[in-house]
Write a structure and sequence with these properties.
By secondary structure, the protein is an alpha+beta fold. It folds into two domains: about 5-210, no CATH class; about 240-405, Reverse transcriptase/Diguanylate cyclase domain (Alpha-Beta Plaits), CATH 3.30.70.270. It contains 14 helices and five strands. The chain has a five-stranded mixed beta sheet, with helices on both faces. The radius of gyration is 43 Å and the shape is rod-shaped. The N and C termini lie far apart (about 90 Å). The model has no long low-confidence stretch (mean pLDDT about 85).
Length: about 400
């Protein structure tokens, strides 16, 4: 991967190549205080050694500058760690760039002060520390090329000025070569970092695409499941959905000893309606009934389903007989108020309803409960339709049994 030199100079924390997450990760490392503490300790050691060997004319001043620089970096690190959530990333990039310039001047001025009129032995130590500091900074330059290039240039400039004062002209070409070498080293590190960033971003994009595909697949499966459990004509849950829901509510009744009610109802004289207006009108009638029933406000555990043909069923868990009859009356009035469109506009439709309630302590199989609701519905039709009948356990049951030989 070729990285032109001008791109290295223009880059600032490589934010143009990565996401905000990668930039924050870089800033976390760049604001660390420990490299500066290590460099500060090495500079203090140089100052003490220079004074011990008869040099160190400006050692005290160098120590003061080193302490001031360390205090600035410690304060910036503290502020960064306590930044507010959602803080601007651009703001902290600018702050780090200012800190990098401060470090270049701080380290450079400190070392330059120590170099002025220092003995030869002290100069070797000071220049070694300077090289180590620059190498440490440049090893992190792949995260912030421009600020750290400027930092290195400032440090080298200060050392060159001190060397000229001492008459060490040979350091000028050596410094230039060292700087060029560091730029090449930065370039290699940036190349590796860019490969890593692109690999990470590619992996994140692939994972995001996979997650999106999984979500779309789950949504598609849910849609198919809803289609499989929905009656296409009325938009209500179909017989299969009712069977599943009723089985679950019946199990809850057995476990928690709560009442369970069922309402079975169908449209009165629907065969005559079909014969008079045609099957398309019959389908339109069923669709209108479905729309009316879907508009009723129901709790999540209640269900109205198309049981078959013109017959519908409603499951009412935790509902006693009186409340079930009230609900049945709401259903009867809702259908009775329905106004059809087309040629049958003046034709009203009604429903007959059978209600059955399983008391909290009573036991009955699902099929038995449906059969009892069907018997109550049959009685409602016998008594004139457009009415509600309740299945009773005593004399009413015997009467119904006699009517169903």
């Amino acid at each position: 991967m070729h990285i032109p030199l001008h791109q290295i100079w223009q880059s600032n924390l490589l934010e143009e190549y990565g996401s905000d997450k990668h930039v924050w990760q870089a800033l976390d490392e760049l604001f660390e205080i420990w490299p500066h503490i290590t460099a500060w300790a090495a500079i203090i050691l140089c100052a003490v050694y220079a004074m011990a060997t008869g040099g160190g004319q400006y050692a005290v001043e160098a120590i003061i500058v080193a302490i001031a620089h360390l205090a600035i970096r410690a304060l910036s690190n503290l502020l960064y760690r306590r930044r507010a959530p959602g803080d601007s990333i651009c703001r902290w990039i600018r702050i780090f760039s200012a800190c990098a310039l401060t470090s270049g001047l701080g380290w450079g001025l400190t070392l330059a002060l120590l170099l002025v009129h220092a003995p030869i032995d002290s100069r070797y130590l000071i220049l070694t520390v300077a090289a180590v500091i620059m190498q440490s900074a440049n090893s992190r330059a792949h995260m912030a090329p421009r600020p750290l290039i400027i930092q290195t240039a400032l440090l080298l400039t200060c050392i060159c000025v001190a060397s000229i004062i001492n008459g060490d002209w040979i350091l000028l070409p050596a410094t230039l070569l060292f700087f060029v070498f560091q730029i090449g080293h930065m370039r290699n590190l940036i190349r590796l970092r860019l490969r890593q960033l692109r690999a990470e971003i590619g992996q994140e994009q692939a994972l995001a695409q996979l997650e999106l595909s999984n979500t779309e697949l789950l949504n598609a499966n849910e849609t198919l499941r809803q289609y499989a459990l929905t009656d296409g004509l009325t938009g209500l849950p179909n017989r299969r959905a009712f069977d599943m829901h009723f089985a679950a509510r019946h199990k809850e009744h057995q476990q928690h000893a709560a009442p369970l009610s069922l309402i079975l109802f169908d449209i009165d004289h629907f065969k005559h309606f079909n014969d008079s207006f045609g099957h398309q009108a019959g389908d339109a009638c069923l669709a209108s009934v479905g729309e009316t029933l879907r508009a009723l406000p129901l709790s999540q555990d209640r269900m109205i389903a198309r049981y078959g043909g013109e017959e519908f069923v409603m499951v009412l868990p935790k509902t006693d007989e009186a409340s079930a009859v009230e609900m049945a009356e709401i259903l009867r009035r809702a259908i009775a108020s329905l106004r059809l469109k087309g040629a049958q506009a003046n034709t009203g439709i009604t429903v007959s309803l059978g209600v059955v309630t399983l008391a909290p302590r009573d036991q009955a199989r699902e099929g038995e409960l449906i059969d009892r609701a069907d018997q109550a519905l049959y009685l409602a039709k016998q008594k004139g339709r457009n009415r509600i009948e309740i299945f009773r356990d005593c004399a009413d049951r015997k009467a119904l049994d006699m009517q169903h030989p």
